[in-house]
Amino acid sequence: TPPLPSQDPSGSSTSPGSVSRLVGAPGADVTRKSRTCKAAAPLAWVPTLAAPRTLAVYFNQTPAAKVGQVGAVALYVLNKGSLDPAITAIDLLLQTASTQQQQWATMYTGGQGQRPQLTCPGLNHFPLSAAALAAVQPQLTSAEVLAAEVVGVRLHVNEDHLTNKADLPHLAAVGLKLLQT
């Protein structure tokens, strides 16, 4: 069993299913060994069976990507699991220049029928709409939203009761797909 986030706050555990499996781009071992959609804890992050099933990823890129530069949140899925939707929400952690405060903003909400749409194994893009993001951040102007830095992503995995980790999604990478400039 991978350590719970509270047991591994630095994300340094290397046990199967641990969050360290998400660091960096998917390696050759991921693309070579994952030719079919199946449970792959040694290569991926696997949520806990107990709720809550959330994952917060923070980016250390300098300079940080701005909302206006991000086209999508990208997830490399090795196993879809049995839940539908597998991913119930994706939030971005935004930092605005004017306040220097960080705040979470929901950019995606999953619904029934998502699971069959996921590419597995493979890269899945969840498009970011700056206009929709601005709508859920009424205290910010559209220009402030576009200029906000994206410093993290939080995934919410379906919390329906399960007894087998193979029924959970297995993720090998979380990242941002930047727009071409």
From TrEMBL:
Residues 7-20 have a biased composition (Low complexity). Residues 1-27 are annotated as: Disordered. This is Uncharacterized protein.
